[in-house]
Amino acid sequence: MRTARHPAPIRRTRTATAATPLRITLADATLPKLGRVRLATTEAGICALAMPDWNDHQLGLEPWTRAGATCAKGRHPHLDLAFAELRGYVAGRLKVFTVPVDLAQLTPFFLRVLTELQRVPHGAVLTYGQLADLAGSPRAARAVGQAVGRNPVAVIVPCHRVLAGNGIGGFGLGLEAKRMLLGIEGIEA
Fold first, then answer.
1. pLDDT at position 113
2. Which of 157, 162, 155, 113 is nearest to 134 (CA)?
3. What's the whole-number average pLDDT of the chain?
4. Residue 58 domain-assigned?
5. Phi, psi (deg, nearest 5) at residue 50
6. Quick one: which of 46, 47, 79 has its CA closest to 61?
7. Which end of the chain has fewer CB atoms within 10 angstroms, the N or the C?
8. Domain presence at residue 172
9. pLDDT per position as a tens digit, 12-70
């Protein structure tokens, strides 16, 4: 497993064309503490993560399929690395995810917010307002909340590290999952 001080950059890919179709590879695994985890990757990086034991959200691949992507189960080095890093994270051995992430289907604003969020270090938290400041939109805390809430690669891009100004705030996987993830990082919420 690679270790790094900084996360892998978030990447953007183009839409599919007849000459260069986008292919998404899917895989499932059961991991300690997280339960069932479903991942999807493009050639550029992980593009979706779901944890069905925590909620009923699907992988959210509709933007990709609308852009012409085809999906199939299989093996891919990004998936292998992501599952290995998730295992290391829940065991307390991994502080920074290095698996590439592909968020090409997000708006430029959402991408900017999630890029800043990815820089929040393990064991640290911030508020939606603070993240809005970091993203260069100090008056956009609610819009930042929407971007964080639509993060397609939760845990890898650590949306659980964002708290409301008056408490723990929400989390797409549920508050129990948010508390568990923060607890892995030594944060009591």
1. 97
2. 113
3. 89
4. yes
5. -135, 150
6. 47
7. N
8. yes
9. 554 544 456 789 999 999 999 999 999 999 999 999 999 988 877 777 888 888 888 89
The three-state secondary structure class of 143 is helix
Residue 125: is it exposed, middle or buried by C-beta count within 10 angstroms (0-12/13-18/19+)?
middle
Partnered with residue 10 across adjacent β-strands are 101
Q: Side chain identity at 175, as an amino acid letter?
A: L
d(CA 4, CA 10): 15
Domain of residue 146, CATH code = 1.10.10.10
Count structural domains, the chain.
1
Three-state secondary-structure class, residue 47:
strand
pLDDT given for residue 63 in this prediction: 85
Q: Within a domain: residue 117?
A: yes
Q: Which domain holds residue 38?
A: 23-185
The secondary structure of the chain in percent helix, strand, coil, rounded to multiples of 5, reads 30, 20, 50
Among 22, 113, 159, 173, the one annotated catalytic? 159
Which tokens hold the place of 65?
Answer: 């399929």
Q: What is the DSSP string of 148-182?
A: HHT-TTBTTB-GGGEEBTTBS---TT-HHHHHHHH
Here the tokens at position 150 are: 């639509």
**Within-domain flag for 11:** no
